[in-house]
């Protein structure tokens, strides 16, 4: 019997290919209704560099001086000038979301943490799940859009930041990631997250279009407003 996680990792480039990746740099378009609610309306075109060995992301062009660096790590976020001067910082950034719901405005450090851990996850999954501390189990297959998708439930270790501890991921017959289901613990949203247009960059397969919509007991609100959309326009895998 095929191991689903092994098949998924192999389809996205394989462990050996991933082992040599140090960082991934992406330019992407970013917008959505939830971003508007949080106080960052309109269309954004940030750049990000993620460290594949640990939770760390460096973002630029999210607002203010385009040379400012918005830096995410698990236990600290900060914004620094081009010369390294720190202008804002926050320790224990996840705790700063206590009491927040979908309509609670965010500040720049909230956004640094949320977008930082999210994009770090998006660019390291599914390889991330092969690390010690993750557990997985295969669930019943799912029918959607005339296709049968394999479903993998993933439980994160406590020291890896993510939307929520337990997530469901859906894969097509080619073991490509099609959808994720999760709750955004820091924002209070219940999400269905769709992945499209996988492309290969130096042997690593990455979905280049992501759309997040609200999920209800009756299913995802595909005809409703998009919560977030990310469109990758330039991707560089660094070794």
Describe this structure in words.
The structure is a single chain. The protein is mainly β. 15% of the residues lie in helices and 45% in strands. The chain has helices spanning 4-11, 15-19, 33-37, 108-124, and strands spanning 23-31, 47-51, 56-60, 69-73, 76-80, 86-91, 135-144, 147-155, 166-171, 177-184, 189-201, 204-216, 219-220, 228-238. Strands 1, 2, 3, 4, 5, 6, 7, 8, 9, 10, 11, 12, 13 and 14 form a 14-stranded antiparallel sheet that branches. Strand 11 and strand 12 (204-216) form a beta hairpin. It is globular, with a radius of gyration of 17 Å. The two termini are 34 Å apart.
Structure keywords:
mainly beta; outer membrane lipoprotein receptor (LolB), chain A; globular
Here the CATH topology equals outer membrane lipoprotein receptor (LolB), chain A
Largest sheet features:
14 strands, antiparallel
How much is the radius of gyration in Å? 17 Å
Shape: globular
What CATH architecture would you give?
A: Clam
Separation of termini?
34 Å
Number of strands: 14
- pLDDT < 50 stretches: none
Query: What's the number of helices?
Result: 4
Number of domains: 1
Helix content: 10-25%
- SS strand fraction: 35-45%
Quaternary organization: single chain
What is the CATH homology-level superfamily?
Lipoprotein localisation LolA/LolB/LppX
Mean pLDDT: 96
Structural class: mainly beta
**Which sequence of SSEs, written as H and E, runs from N to C?**
HHEHEEEEEHEEEEEEEE
Task: Look at the structure and give the CATH class.
Answer: Mainly Beta
């Amino acid at each position: 019997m095929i191991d689903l996680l092994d098949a998924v990792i192999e389809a996205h480039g394989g462990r050996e290919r991933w082992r040599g990746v140090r960082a991934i740099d992406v330019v992407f378009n970013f917008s959505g209704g939830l971003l508007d609610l949080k106080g960052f309306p309109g269309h954004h075109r940030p750049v990000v560099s993620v460290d594949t060995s640990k939770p760390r992301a460096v973002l630029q062009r999210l607002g203010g001086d385009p040379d400012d660096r918005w830096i995410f790590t698990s236990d600290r976020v900060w914004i620094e000038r081009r010369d390294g001067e720190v202008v804002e910082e926050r320790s224990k950034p996840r705790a700063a979301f206590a009491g927040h719901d979908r309509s609670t405005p965010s500040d720049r450090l909230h956004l640094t943490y949320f977008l930082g851990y999210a994009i770090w996850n998006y660019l390291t999954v599914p390889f991330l799940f092969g690390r010690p501390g993750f557990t997985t189990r295969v669930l019943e297959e799912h029918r959607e859009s005339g296709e049968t998708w394999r479903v993998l439930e993933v439980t994160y270790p406590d020291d890896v930041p993510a939307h929520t501890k337990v997530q469901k991921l859906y894969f097509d017959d080619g073991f490509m990631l099609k959808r994720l289901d999760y709750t955004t613990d820091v924002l209070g949203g219940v999400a269905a997250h769709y992945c499209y247009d996988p492309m290969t960059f130096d042997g690593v397969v990455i979905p280049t279009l992501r759309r997040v919509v609200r999920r209800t007991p009756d299913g995802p609100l595909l005809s409703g407003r998009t919560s977030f959309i990310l469109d990758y326009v330039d991707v560089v895998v660094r070794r």
